[in-house]
Amino acid sequence: MDIYIANSTRQAMRIWLRVAEMDGSNRLRRVNITPGGQEVVKGLSKGQADLVVAQLRTYGALRREEISRSIKRFDGIVFAFDNPISENAIQHGHAEQIDYAQQRAVEENTRTALSSDRDPGTRKRKSRETSFEISRDGERGGSTPVMGLTISETGANTKSLPI
Predict the structure, then answer these.
(1) Model pTM above 0.85
(2) pLDDT in tens, the chain (163 residues)
(3) Cα–Cα dist 9/144, whole Å
(4) Closest to 110 (Cα-Cα) out of 75, 152, 144
(5) Within a 10 A sphere around the Cβ of 110, how many other Cβ atoms?
(6) Where are the domains of the chain?
(7) Dihedral angle at the C-alpha atoms of 56, 58, 64, 66, nearest 10 degrees?
(8) Please, what is the Cα angle at 93 between 148 and 67, to 5 degrees?
């Protein structure tokens, strides 16, 4: 049995696997996966494949069929048994990973904005609405807006990704 492991992020990925029966020792095996690429771990028994999948799950890996569903968290690693992962599946995984990262950024920035909008004595909000904008420094000076967020009196946010 073969396991194909794909990287749907923009970063090179190094995954360490330990399956004692693969080469008769208990050494770690390193799998380097380029951004948008995939590697294959060949010649595994069913038990070895289950061990590899369990280790991949600790890295947040999802099976190819799972990324087509609505998912809450995705770290960019996709795996499949016996067949290579299509380019479309890797691209879809990349889009899901970007969506997850943006949602996480909104949640973290909402938490930060709400904490800075509290009166230290009463712990109540000071304003009815809080807005902020995050920008990135440009290469030639100035800044480029990346994200804007407005938080209402109820704590609900109105996000704008990207601006």
Answers:
(1) no
(2) 899 999 988 889 998 888 766 566 677 888 999 999 999 998 888 888 898 999 999 888 888 888 776 666 777 889 999 899 999 888 888 888 787 777 777 778 777 777 777 777 777 777 777 777 777 676 666 666 677 777 776 666 655 555 4
(3) 23
(4) 152
(5) 19
(6) 3-95, 117-163
(7) 160
(8) 110
CB 90 within 8 A of CB 98: no
Amino acid at 75: D
- 142 φψ region: left (φ > 0), alpha (ψ -120 to 50), beta (else): left
The Cα 100–Cα 159 span in angstroms is: 14
